[in-house]
Amino acid sequence: MAPGAPLACALLREETPFSVIAMSAPNLILNVDSYKASHYLQYPPGAEYVSSYIECRGGEFPEAVFFGLQAFLREYLLTPIHVGDIDEAEEMLHSHGLPFHRAGWEHILQEHGGLLPLEISAVPEGTVVPLHNVMLQVVNTCPACFWLTSYIETALVRAIWYPVTVATQSRLIKGIIAGYLRETADSLDNLPFKLHDFGARGASSLESAMLGGMAHLVNFKGTDTVSGLVAARRYYDEPMAGLSIPAAEHSTMTAWGREGEADAYANMLDQFAGPGKIVAVVSDSWDIWNAIENIWGGTLKERVINSGGTLVVRPDSGDPVSIVCGSIERLMRIFGATTNGKGYRVLPDFIRVIQGDGVNRHSIPEILQAMQDRGISADNLTFGMGGALLQKLDRDIMSFAMKASAIRIDGEWHDVWKDPVTGPEKKSMRGRLALVNDRSGGVETIRLEELGERTNLLQPVFRDGRLLRETTFAEVRRRAELPPGD
């Protein structure tokens, strides 16, 4: 899915005149790589149907959380193309130095009402799929549009790899945190809020923030990326996918001046503290140790203790491992600590720490391990993750690919595959595919003709401009949930 305007425009649809929206709407024909425009001339004579699939061919994670297809379908494939799209695409692509299949697009407009004659089958969203297995399969439904299957690759792969990768990384981190909570905390009750999304400003576009922010919320419920909430509501019918709390930033604290630092913190308590309430205050604008020792643990100590709510202290600079451990241990010395049933120290309920600087999937276990080594429970800490959550990702992390695997020519299906001698890791699958449960409790990809009585986990979700199956965000979350003990 292309970064940029489409979802930004969608935010204004209810209040913007249709004529303005129409001018801004994306042209699906141009949502493509340049070379795709010439491919309709490259297939063998008699071509009728092309079947392609998407898989993760390898990478840094052992499995993938399939997510994001419904958002793409609702945003892009339920709206028909019109003659203006064809005219614009013809002018641009000809000027760009390429042929243009005007007859093919006019056929789609006249015979299919401008809706793409494609069938897309996929695993249910939220399904955790091991690498090297088919997750999605697409085939044209009109033999005159054999070229369309691969034409949609650019938009479809982009629409899938990014939310899948964010959701997969987020789930992996959830498993890491859950493991440390099991070892050092009395419960996992707070796990859904242990990784908070700070990534909106670091994303490449509003659309990226929406999709990535929503993908993170498949696994957690804490976020400051409001656009992710909008996306979950719009595309997966989730009224409210996540929560946040009042929190300070450096500008609101430093606006009081260094001499007014204690007054700035006191104001945060005045405005937001109280029974059952949580407030986070960034406390390293000048000296985090002075803030802990002499302001939170001195001037404002009794107010913190007696607020009835929870103060979350946020360090925001320095080495994350030493800063987190040092902050928690200082707070424990000042405010006390109890020992939980696992034998680890826990701050009083009225005070906690959130670390949002230098947080990524590598530093999180380093921080938690250092805490455990010092006898500190993981329950004391929440993480905020920004660019590493939504932006420092690419398609190669999981080696996403969409490849043609079968073609029907003059009524007969033939296998299509690649197997480069210089890159065996890029070998593709052959034939029309199915995904089934195997005897070991996992899944395996097989040829469709081998399915027999087994259930194909790839189910049609889109056909000829219609959404055949809809899933809710709650269903996605349930499928992606960690198994007990993980």
From TrEMBL:
Q: Which SUPFAM superfamilies match?
A: Nicotinate/Quinolinate PRTase C-terminal domain-like
What class does this enzyme belong to in the EC scheme? transferase
**What positions does the entry give for beta-nicotinamide D-ribonucleotide binding?**
224, 314-316, 356-357, 387, 395
Which residues belong to any copy of the Nicotinamide phosphoribosyltransferase N-terminal domain? 27-120
Specify the pathway: Cofactor biosynthesis; NAD(+) biosynthesis; nicotinamide D-ribonucleotide from 5-phospho-alpha-D-ribose 1-diphosphate and nicotinamide: step 1/1
Q: Which GO terms describe its biological process?
A: NAD+ biosynthetic process
Q: Which family does it belong to?
A: Belongs to the NAPRTase family.
- Read off the PANTHER family from this record: NICOTINAMIDE PHOSPHORIBOSYLTRANSFERASE
Name it.
Answer: Nicotinamide phosphoribosyltransferase
The organism named in the record is Microbulbifer yueqingensis
